[in-house]
From TrEMBL:
Belongs to the chloride channel (TC 2.A.49) family. Residues 657-723, 753-811 form the CBS domain. This is Chloride channel protein. It is found in: Endosome membrane; Membrane.
Length: 817
């Protein structure tokens, strides 16, 4: 079986000229994109005669084209902004396996080749894990150093970040562990002041300048060298994994620029994370490494299995969560995920996590920056505030998606989209100006989440741990805790200050995350969403803690509090809130919970996480079915057939197929009787990506389907290398040669490029079944027949436009943005 191309506006090939003025070239809304086709698609004008013998005689002429599929590079490949043929690719892979298995029984060399072929997939996973882990470790180290560079520099070595600089110092006190003589702020270096308003003003100015410099460099590098390096990358990865071709999106320049600019963007202090872009980076690594393995380089379906595993690797190195990464790939990203891919994803994620652990980018022997351990058990009634956090996460997710899509649509449809550099600089300036005065927005989002997840111990000096008892002692005093009992957990002045600063930080994070996601710099969404939820969770946790302490004698709180122990863990609320908000935005459930307990080590808190994640998804789904990634896929008009979206309308195939009533008949080829000139004229006059082949115009019984690209390459190759081919040469798709006069020019036999078993449905087939067929088999098009006669064609584009029309959306938005 083979299902072929969407008959869609795709530009035309003819006479060495590919006219790219079609709508598909505008699919990705990135200006000034230059795509290099040379790595993936052989040029149409390549000389294929090298190494072949073209002796004279009619036999060599007529047999030359019979093995076209094997001898001519370019046959069976795909153009940019087209969908792959899953069925044909899987069929090619099965044929390749069958051939290798047969040859392995004939010689020892062939047997060794068979073993190496079977092992190559695991070797590729090993290389992807090593490369992605190494890059992620480098990104973490560089981002941490450059974030601290905005505040000062280490005198012992400028390459040390703040924490590493003060590690070796003997003059660091525990209360002021971040201060040491070796670390100098910019004010101390430039004007020699260590206190007073001058210190604040100079540090403020340098903080803003560094932020602007980093953001400006990031957006300039993206625009100049790799426009595809902007954004999260996950919407495009999902589209590519569904079978769509976006040449250059996973190329070497995209990898290099995304790695560099991701460090710059994170260090600039913008409200974005590196987790989503790390998935893109891992997929770039996988795509590049696939070129060294023939079976993955030549088969787009096999390559997508590798990219699914690479998505798992990206999450594994982003969060230090290998199991969560595999589940993320399975639940959120992958379109086709066989069991073999599950095993290989697990292996690749394991290798990547081991590599990251060996690099130890955070210096704490952990895979993640905010590993925490909570010691107080949660109480059953606490499920109520956990569910409330889930409701907040769902509301935030629905609000964020609508607000962000509205902002991105405004960027697309107004002159704002013509000034991406100015937009990034202005947003960075506002972010830096408003973030510096507030402690919790000045620090990086990862440090903020680590602070909010933290369970206050006896030696913590953070404002969030400033509790005072009747005698005014802090929780840092063991004597005060013992003397005051529960009174030692009453909120102190530092905690009240932290609370209003967190409330202000919550508002700023919300606003800046909405306008930042989608700008022309690498921008992830996981960490900002988690930061919003963690702030809300910590605020609620502190409120619940104070409520339980002040009313511990009431029945509802009885047994919660005991002298010398915490009643409630506010850090747990921050963790649950982070999961709820991330779930509301991405609509993840199983993978989210696993990522969160791998991220924090909070294995015993799975039930609160599950409750919050499910509540968040229910609330967000009630307000809008799409996750942020699906919303961006629809905004960009990518041809993605969402498996979660149900089709409930009672339409038939005849309602969707083309041609419609009043349209000219479908363009077809006949299996014999057409000349090279007629076929070339048909190609030049149409923009379709393929043509049905019928017996004759008078008897339109379906024979098969041929791709436009295969047809063009075959005709050009025949004109170049087959002697005697002229415009009047007949085109034959038949198995047997029809009788021809001796003076007739030689025929061009194209039977080998003909798909003899295209998918067909009848005019009475319900569209619900047709949509299911397209989803589950990854079809590009199917032909509509009645009693064997060809009546029309339904493409993936037609399906998407019909579904948009049924949902009262603009059908012309599909594939035209």
């Amino acid at each position: 079986l083979s299902a072929l191309t969407k008959v869609m506006d795709n530009g035309g090939f003819c006479d060495d000229n590919y006219q790219s003025g079609s709508s598909d070239d505008e699919l990705v809304d990135i200006s000034e994109v230059t795509v290099d086709f040379s790595e993936d698609v052989p040029p149409l004008d390549r000389d294929y005669s090298a190494g072949k013998t073209h002796g004279g005689g009619e036999k060599s002429m007529t047999s030359l084209m019979d093995l076209l599929d094997d001898t001519v590079p370019g046959i069976g490949t795909y153009e940019d902004f087209n969908t792959i043929d899953w069925v044909r690719e899987k069929s090619k892979d099965r044929d390749r396996h069958r051939e290798i298995a047969n040859k392995s029984k004939q010689s020892t060399v062939a047997l060794l080749f068979s073993i190496s072929d079977a092992f190559s997939g695991w070797l590729l996973m090993l290389l992807i894990g090593l490369m992605s882990g190494a890059l992620a470790g480098g990104i973490d180290i560089a981002a941490h150093w450059m974030t601290d560079l905005k505040e000062g520099v280490c005198l012992n070595g400028f390459w040390f970040n703040h924490e590493h600089c003060c590690w070796a110092s003997n003059e660091t006190t525990f209360q002021e562990r971040d201060k040491c003589p070796q670390w100098k702020s910019w004010a101390e270096l430039m004007v020699g002041v260590s206190e007073g308003p001058g210190l604040y003003v100079v540090n403020y100015f340098m903080y803003v300048c560094w932020a602007l410099l980093f953001a400006f460099l990031a957006v300039i590098l993206v625009r100049a060298f790799a426009p595809y390096a902007c954004g999260s990358g996950i919407p495009e990865i999902k589209t590519i994994l569904s079978g769509f071709i976006i040449r250059g999106y996973l190329g070497k320049w995209t990898l290099i620029i995304k790695t560099i600019t991701l460090v710059l963007a994170v260090s600039s202090g913008l409200s974005l994370g590196k987790e989503g872009p790390l998935v893109h980076v891992a997929c770039c690594c996988a795509n590049i490494l696939c070129h060294f393995f023939t079976k993955y380089r030549r088969n787009e379906a096999k390559k997508r299995e590798v990219l699914s595993a690479a998505s798992a690797v990206g999450v594994s190195v982003a969060f230090g969560a290998p199991i969560g990464g595999v589940l993320f790939s399975l639940e959120e990203v992958s379109y086709y995920f066989p069991l073999k891919t599950l095993w290989r994803s697990f292996f690749a994620a394991l290798v990547a996590a081991f590599t990251l652990r060996s690099i130890n980018p955070f210096g704490n022997s952990r895979l993640v920056l905010f590993y925490v351990e909570f010691h107080t058990p949660w109480h059953l009634l606490e499920l109520i505030p956990f569910v409330l956090l889930g409701i907040f996460g769902g509301l935030w997710g629905a609000f964020f998606i609508r607000a962000n899509i509205a902002w991105c649509r405004l960027r697309k449809n107004t002159s704002l989209g013509h000034y991406p550099v100015l937009e990034v600089v202005v947003v960075t300036l506002l972010t830096a100006l408003l973030a510096f005065p507030i402690e919790y927005t000045k620090m990086s989002s990862s440090e903020l989440i680590s602070e909010l997840f933290n369970d206050c111990g006896l030696l913590d000096s953070s404002k969030l741990c400033d509790y005072s008892g009747n005698s005014g002692g802090t929780s840092g005093s063991v004597n005060a805790t013992a003397a005051n009992g529960l009174g030692a957990r009453l909120a102190g002045p530092g905690l009240y200050t932290a609370m209003w600063q967190l409330a202000l930080a919550l508002v700023l994070k919300m606003v800046f995350t909405v306008v930042t996601f989608g700008m022309k710099v690498p921008s992830g969404l996981f960490i900002p969403s988690m930061a919003v939820g963690a702030i809300a969770g910590r605020l609620l946790g502190v409120c619940m803690e104070q409520l339980a302490i002040r009313h511990h004698e009431r029945d509802i709180f009885r047994g919660w509090c005991s002298p010398g122990a915490d009643c409630i863990t506010p850090g747990l609320y921050a963790m649950v809130g982070a999961a709820a908000c991330l779930g509301g935005v991405t609509r993840m459930t199983v993978s989210l919970v696993v990522i969160m307990f791998e991220l924090t080590g909070g294995l015993e808190y799975i039930v609160p996480l599950m409750a919050a994640a499910m509540t968040s998804k229910w609330v967000a789904d009630a307000l809008g079915r799409e996750s942020i990634y699906e919303a961006h896929i629809r905004l960009n008009g990518y041809p993605f057939l969402e498996a979660k979206e149900e089709f409930r309308h009672k339409t038939l195939a005849t309602d969707v197929m083309r041609p419609r009533r009043g349209d000219p008949p479908v363009s077809v080829l006949t299996e014999s009787g057409m000349t090279v000139e007629e076929v070339e004229r048909l190609i030049a006059d149409t923009t379709y990506s393929g043509f049905p082949v019928v017996i004759s115009q008078q008897s339109p019984r379906l024979v098969g389907f041929v791709l436009r690209r295969d047809l063009v390459i075959s005709l050009e190759n025949a004109r170049r290398h087959q002697e005697g081919v002229v415009s009047m040469s007949p085109i034959l798709f038949t198995e047997c040669d029809p009788p021809m006069s001796p003076s007739a020019p030689p025929a061009v036999k194209l039977r080998s490029i003909l798909d003899l078993s295209p998918f067909t449905v009848t005019v009475h087939t319900a569209m619900e079944i047709v949509v299911d067929i397209f989803r589950k088999l990854g079809l590009r098009q199917c032909l509509v027949i009645q009693n064997g006669r060809l009546l029309g064609i339904i493409t993936k584009k037609d399906i998407l436009k019909h579904m948009a029309q049924m949902a009262n959306r603009d059908p012309d938005s599909i594939l035209f943005n």
